[in-house]
Amino acid sequence: MVSIIFLIVFLIPNKQAFVKSDTTIYILPTKNSTIFYKTKRVNVVQVAMKKENFVKIIMNLNNKKIIGWIKEDKLVKN
In this structure, are strands 35-38 and 15-19 parallel, antiparallel, or unpaired? Predict the structure, then answer.
């Protein structure tokens, strides 16, 4: 039963959205988290989950996937 739920959750594709330019990407969804990247332009991202006023995103950058958290107001939904 647990394995079926696990498969269903991971087979559902993430929603796509746009991240505004000059958006700060944090390691954790907290106010004092470490900043590890700042976007230079609008980027297409996958939205993985939401926690309070943060959104977990997956972004492709130079053939690498970056996973981090952004503030919800920096996200532009389709």
Answer: unpaired
47 burial (CB, 10 Å; 0-12 / 13-18 / 19+) is middle
Burial of 17 (0-12, 13-18, 19+ CB in 10 A): middle
Please give the model's pTM, rounded to 2 decimal places. 0.79
Q: What is the pLDDT of residues 38-72, one digit of tens each?
A: 999 999 999 999 999 999 999 998 899 999 999 99
| Contact between 14 and 54 (Cβ < 8 Å) | no
Could you identify the residue written with the tokens 């939205």?
47
